[in-house]
Write a structure and sequence with these properties.
The protein is α/β, with parallel strands linked by helices. The protein contains 19 helices and 13 strands. Its main location: membrane.
Length: 521
């Protein structure tokens, strides 16, 4: 009996020997970002790790080893600023968009670090084996991760962009790797390559300003933090919310892992009114959602009326994520609801079209299910995602400024009556689904790899230890120029000496001839 008890205890203990304490920091008040973090942390919890999610959102059906630190007051930033800021800035210049983003980040981080729960966390003796951070240049959150955990893993929720490339020193040639702004295809003409190069150079200078602002925040709330470059060196791994079927291929280093689509679990069956609505829509359903950050209710009335008039004339049902359920006099074919199980709806056989803001999660879910799209991008990476879909032939782009009843009707007509869009996205779906490992399993594997190998810093290239002038071989180029210059100088001197010698001999020879002639005369 004692032997049986000992054996049972061993069975319980052994699987948990390698389990780690993991902190997830997903502090942006964006539901889509929280969904990604929640899926990842639940996947880690399922492997026995003790996880803690730090987020403005709470989750449902938590495993027993899944803890939460919910930051309620961060929502005031979302309610007061985010939706309206994005709508107002979507037609702004690149500089204005960047300034707006910086201002938003500063306000949000001040609220975040002034939260009592964050203050208590920083000043507690609680420490973690690893922190997973949602990061896009907000170094203050990296400083918090370094303070709280032995290792740091970054989760780039908008996929590959300037920031992860800067951090890993992965090559990103401007000739074929487009920047987040402006949105160019990977096959750029001469003018586009020129603008892309100028943008890359501009990002470097803008990034220094952003790093300086972030350093002020770090010194204010975490004054004993290491330098910014030491914080970068503390990062073990970067998980990218993308896949080569979602963006144009580009160079990566071993430290960068593609995990796009990790939120795509098996679709659940619809229930209640939604199930009835979808099942009875034999003519087909159009799904319309502007995501979790943009409120359809914030769209100006003229555009809103144009959208409704367009939908009213369609022979299809329309399911619309709309934040106000008391909208007056809607056409009978339109159903509005505050929140939708989007990935489950996109998997339904009666879905014909998805009208989206172009967020990466929405685009990923539509590609996975082979549903063609109309993209109305507003902010951030949405323009790039929609442009990528337009280039690959599975999406039609309608700019928000040009959104009218006529432009939306024309786009719907084009997508639904031209089979090319559905064929292209279904081909893209087959590529996306054809992976040796599920994205969530891949993410969990590499996080555990970092823990097993004490940070796995061997994944980094030595480029990280080089100064910028060494990285771009400017010192080597300088030496080459010096050698060429010295060679030219020496060659010039030799040439001058030869010329002098030849001139001297020539003059002597001429003098002798003249002397002879004078004697003969």
């Amino acid at each position: 009996m004692k032997l049986l008890q000992s054996f049972t205890i061993l069975l319980i203990i052994i699987p948990n020997i390698n389990c780690a304490r993991i902190l997830g920091i997903f502090n942006i008040p964006s539901k889509s970002h929280h969904i990604l973090g929640e899926c990842l942390l639940k996947g880690l919890a399922a492997k026995g790790h003790e996880v803690t999610m730090l987020s403005p959102f709470s989750s449902e059906k938590l495993p027993k080893n899944y803890n939460e630190i919910v930051l309620e007051n961060v929502f005031q930033v979302k309610d007061e600023m985010m939706s309206r800021m994005m709508l107002d800035a979507q037609n702004s210049s690149l500089i204005n968009k960047i300034i707006t983003t910086m201002q938003f980040m500063n306000v949000m981080e001040d609220i975040f670090f002034n939260h009592t729960k964050i203050y208590n966390l920083i000043h507690s003796e609680d420490r973690y084996d690893l922190a997973i951070v949602m990061w896009f240049g907000n170094d203050a959150i990296l400083a918090l991760a370094e303070h709280m955990a032995k290792h740091t893993v970054i989760f780039s929720t908008i996929g590959s962009n300037f920031e992860p490339t800067k951090l890993t020193k992965a090559p990103a040639p401007s000739s074929y790797v487009p920047n987040l702004f402006p949105h160019f295809p990977d096959e750029m003409d001469l003018f586009e390559r020129f603008l892309n190069l100028l943008t890359s150079i501009s990002y470097v200078f803008i990034d220094y300003i952003f790093m300086y602002q972030q350093r002020i925040i770090i010194n204010k709330y975490l004054p004993n933090s290491p330098s910014t470059y030491d914080l970068y060196e503390h990062v073990s791994l970067i998980l990218l919310n993308t896949h080569f079927s979602l963006e144009s291929p580009r160079p990566y280093v071993p430290q960068m892992i593609q995990v796009g689509g990790l939120q795509l679990e098996e679709s659940k069956n619809l229930t209640g009114e939604l199930k009835q609505f979808m099942d009875e829509a034999s003519e087909g359903v159009i799904l319309f959602s502007m995501g979790s950050n943009i409120k359809s209710s914030d769209i100006d009335k003229q555009k809103l009326n144009g959208i409704i008039n367009c939908f009213a004339r369609l022979p299809y049902k329309v399911l619309w994520k709309f934040e106000k359920e008391d909208f007056p006099s809607l056409p009978t074919n339109i159903k509005i609801t505050k929140w939708l199980p989007q990935k489950d709806l996109l998997a339904h056989k009666n879905i014909k079209l998805f009208i989206t803001h172009g967020g990466l999660l929405s685009v990923t879910e539509a590609i996975y299910n082979g549903v063609p799209m109309i993209g109305i991008p507003i902010f951030g990476d949405q323009e790039r995602n929609v442009h990528e879909g337009k280039t690959k032939g599975y999406m039609v782009h309608v700019s928000y400024s040009d959104l009218t009843e006529e432009t939306l009707s024309s786009a719907i007509e084009e997508v639904l009556h031209n089979p090319t869009y559905r064929n292209n996205i279904q081909a893209r779906s087959r590529v996306f689904r054809d992976q040796p490992l599920k994205p969530l399993d891949k993410a969990v594997y590499w996080i555990e790899y970092v823990i097993r190998h004490d940070g796995a810093h061997h994944l980094k290239t030595s480029a990280f230890k080089l100064y910028w002038f060494q990285l771009y071989l400017l010192d080597v180029i300088a030496i080459i120029f010096v050698v060429i210059f010295v060679f030219i100088c020496i060659a010039r001197k030799i040439f001058k000496c030869l010329c002098k010698c030849l001139c001297k001999k020539s003059s002597q020879h001429t003098a002798k001839k003249l002397k002879k002639k004078s004697k003969l005369a």
